[in-house]
Amino acid sequence: MASQTSPGTPDDSGIEAPLALNLGAVQRYMQGRLPGFDTEITARKFQNGQSNPTYLLQTEAGAYVLRRKPPGVLLKSAHAVEREFRVQMALRDTGVPVAKMHHLCEDDTVIGSSFYVMEHVVGRNFSDPTLPGLPASDRAAVMDEMSRVLAALHDVDAATVGLADYGPAGNYFERQHGRWSKQYRASEVETIAEMDELIAALGAQMPADDAQRGLVHGDYRIDNMIYAADGTNCRAVLDWELSTIGHPYADLAGVIMQWQMPPGREGRGLAGVNRRDLGLPSDQEFIASYCQRRNLPGVENFGYYLSFSFFRMGAILQGVRKRGLDGNASNPEHAARLGAFVPDFARAGLAALSRKFD
After folding, report:
1. Domain holding 94: CATH number?
2. pLDDT attached to residue 6
3. Which of 123, 155, 183 is the last residue in one of the domains?
């Protein structure tokens, strides 16, 4: 696979237009705060980053990445670049690889919204979990590294790294069910019967709080990771907008959820793929690898956590669709395509409730 840079492809095929970034304002503001901003800078917009528009900045001192909130009216608590900055700062000296944070600007008057500037991490970004072009041994190593980093994240002591207040106490899934139900209703443009049924079923089958609490990423997927250009070690985990103090099984289930999607550019999943021939782990093997690293006997009722992941992603995609309709999406056409998958995620969530992972 061709080498890429975080978190999309920095060439003409991976850049969207229009730029929608006031470069002059960025340059004036960053002068004296980071090297390279005392002369003209250029920017290109990454194709990824539907939620928070992300740009590759080129300066005489080198490259940086700028990530901002999108313009327009936003849902409450959404697009929290301030949280992204804080959590990555906190993780800089842990076993979780993150980009170096340089500067956070919370002054909306500079470019119209908060933004931060971080290190440009050079490496490979795999948007396709089948990992085309890699030998089977490298595929296995890449996925094993994905398991290792996830376990390392969930073993971080949030209080030790200054994140004890990063999320409220209580039943994480109950809290998240309420949050994303409200977000979904706020973005609803038509009745989707399957989503209504799934919301009700998840509420009725809510598991008791087992007191597991820790730092969770919230959108842990292979396309949110940068791997070494010439190796299989992870150099940075990206896109921390949904991170919080919560239940670690939410992240684990999110990985398995993504793999249930069809392969290809849109689904980016592994449904129907002969994983063994490709050197890729089965769902059960990945779960077992994660549990072994964390000294867990296994995960009871994993179908519920998987179902919840489908529900939350459906709610997220509904929000993307609504932003597209309102004219606030980074890429309106892509937002419409993603929004069309909401009923599919709802149906998959209902099916997952009865799936066994023994």
Report:
1. 3.30.200.20
2. 34
3. 123
List the structure tokens of 305.
């956590």
Question: In this structure, what token pair is assigned to residue 299?
Answer: 């995960």
User: Per the domain annotation, does 131 fall within a domain?
Assistant: no
CB 105 within 8 A of CB 21: no
Q: Are residues 167 and 101 in the same domain?
A: no
pTM score above 0.70? yes
Q: Are residues 183 and 286 in the same domain?
A: yes
Same domain, 339 and 195: yes
State how far Cα 241 lies from the chain centre: 7
Mean pLDDT for each consecutive 10-residue tract of the chain (358 residues)? 32 45 95 96 79 92 93 57 96 97 96 95 95 97 98 97 93 94 93 96 95 94 96 96 94 96 87 96 97 96 96 92 82 84 94 85
Two tokens, residue 86: 């804080």
CA distance 300 to 305: 10
Q: What is the pLDDT of residue 2?
A: 27
Instruction: Say whether both 92 and 225 belong to one domain.
Output: no
Residues 146, 147, 148, 152, Cα dihedral to 10° = 100
Rounded Cα–Cα distance for residues 255 and 286 (Å):
9
Residues 143 and 223 in one domain: yes
User: Which is it for the CA torsion 351, 352, 354, 357, positive or negative?
Assistant: positive
Number of domain units in the chain: 2
Give the range of the structural domain holding residue 192, as residue numbers without chain letter: 136-352
Query: What is the Cα 119 distance to its own chain's centre?
Result: 18
